[in-house]
From TrEMBL:
<dbReference type="GO" id="GO:0008270">
    <property type="term" value="F:zinc ion binding"/>
</dbReference>
<dbReference type="GO" id="GO:0035925">
    <property type="term" value="F:mRNA 3'-UTR AU-rich region binding"/>
</dbReference>
<keyword id="KW-0521">NADP</keyword>
<protein>
    <submittedName>
        <fullName>Quinone oxidoreductase</fullName>
    </submittedName>
</protein>
<dbReference type="InterPro" id="IPR020843">
    <property type="entry name" value="ER"/>
</dbReference>
<dbReference type="InterPro" id="IPR047618">
    <property type="entry name" value="QOR-like"/>
</dbReference>
<dbReference type="InterPro" id="IPR002364">
    <property type="entry name" value="Quin_OxRdtase/zeta-crystal_CS"/>
</dbReference>
<dbReference type="GO" id="GO:0070402">
    <property type="term" value="F:NADPH binding"/>
</dbReference>
<dbReference type="InterPro" id="IPR013149">
    <property type="entry name" value="ADH-like_C"/>
</dbReference>
<dbReference type="InterPro" id="IPR013154">
    <property type="entry name" value="ADH-like_N"/>
</dbReference>
<dbReference type="GO" id="GO:0003960">
    <property type="term" value="F:quinone reductase (NADPH) activity"/>
</dbReference>
<dbReference type="Pfam" id="PF00107">
    <property type="entry name" value="ADH_zinc_N"/>
</dbReference>
<feature type="domain" description="Enoyl reductase (ER)">
    <location>
        <begin position="11"/>
        <end position="322"/>
    </location>
</feature>
<keyword id="KW-0560">Oxidoreductase</keyword>
<dbReference type="InterPro" id="IPR036291">
    <property type="entry name" value="NAD(P)-bd_dom_sf"/>
</dbReference>
<dbReference type="GO" id="GO:0005829">
    <property type="term" value="C:cytosol"/>
</dbReference>
<dbReference type="Pfam" id="PF08240">
    <property type="entry name" value="ADH_N"/>
</dbReference>
């Protein structure tokens, strides 16, 4: 038996239950890990609310770190007793221990603590694919990044600075603005006080930016398009304010033949060799000190409901974890 958060129906935070759960023996291609920390991410809200469907009853959480306790037949890349971390499905990371597909697990360097790993795997590899693969940033570019003081945002601030990229970030409060600046964001816009489209145009001498990274969705989508230079790329990778509304393709042509993509981490990590390369680059950035992961919220696993309330109310900044 292990303790885990389960949902029998979709809905608000109240649908999450803290239960005793039977843990099966790992089958072919699976591993069992004892989790030392679990990541908390906005994608968990999407699964809980039903925006992202999954079979029910089910679990929540896509990120964690711990120690391998057992492996099933055919698993050779990890071994019992090794430290591992992961960011991948199926949901179920909100647990003291779990059985999951072994192909999502990567070995965790001794220099990186379990708490740090659980706080950075999904968010850090998201920044890796956004900056190095979806639109490969070059030094000297200027970009717009929404939610700059969130978990992904604070890693993005530091990674952009390390690449020599000027990052314009948006936030919802002066406190968050100071936090983003402290992590390397060159220009921060409090969108509750300023029109971010006008400010981006001012900062770029009317040219706009070549790429916008938008995890907010409904509230910012069309204004984000207006921040792009001709032939620019809109990277819509989340919907914290709700799904992007339907739109006509002419919205892209009328603004300068824009490109748009809706990527997800799990397509980028589907191949084992690519997962390992992405994780290695993230680990290297953290070990070098170019990126520092600061855990700003910690919750006991049985307090997951409050964690989700805080997350949805935009009360959290930086990375958050659950402690089993």
């Amino acid at each position: 038996m292990t303790k885990a958060i389960r949902i029998a129906a979709t809905g608000g935070p109240e649908v999450m239950e803290y239960l005793d759960v039977d843990l099966p023996t790992p089958g072919p291609g699976e591993a069992r890990i004892r989790q030392m920390a679990c990541g908390l991410n906005y994608i968990d809200v999407y699964y809980r609310s039903g925006l992202y469907p999954q079979p029910l009853p089910g679990g929540l959480g896509l990120e964690g770190a711990g120690v391998v306790e057992a492996v099933g037949p055919g698993v050779t890349h990890i071994h019992v007793g090794e430290r591992v971390a992961y960011a991948g499905g199926p949901p179920g990371a909100y647990a003291s221990a779990r059985v999951l597909p072994a192909h999502v697990l990567v070995k965790l360097p001794r220099s990186i603590e379990f708490d740090t790993a659980a706080a950075m795997m999904l968010q850090g590899m998201t920044v890796q694919y956004l900056f190095r693969r979806t639109y490969r940033l070059q030094g000297g570019e200027t970009i717009l990044f929404h939610a700059a003081a969130g978990g992904v945002g604070l890693i993005a601030c530091q990674w952009a600075r390390a690449l020599g990229v000027t990052m314009i970030g948006t936030v919802s409060s002066d406190e968050k603005a100071e936090l983003a600046k402290a992590h390397g964001c060159a220009h921060v816009i409090n969108y509750r006080k300023e029109n971010f489209v006008e400010r981006v145009r001012e900062l770029t001498d009317g040219q706009g930016v070549p790429v916008v990274y938008d995890s907010v969705g409904k509230e910012t989508f069309f204004d984000s398009l207006d921040c792009l230079s001709p032939l620019g790329m809109m990277v819509s990778y989340g919907n914290a304010s709700g799904p992007v509304p339907a739109f006509e393709l002419k919205e892209l042509s009328s603004r300068g033949s824009l490109f748009i993509t809706r990527p997800t981490l799990f397509h980028y990590t589907a191949k084992r060799d690519e997962l390992e390369l992405m994780a290695a680059e993230l680990f290297g950035m953290v070990e070098s000190g170019k990126i520092k992961i600061r855990i700003r919220q910690r919750y006991e696993l049985d307090n997951a409901q409050q964690a989700h309330r805080d997350l949805e109310a935009r009360l959290t900044t930086g990375s958050s974890i659950l402690i089993p």
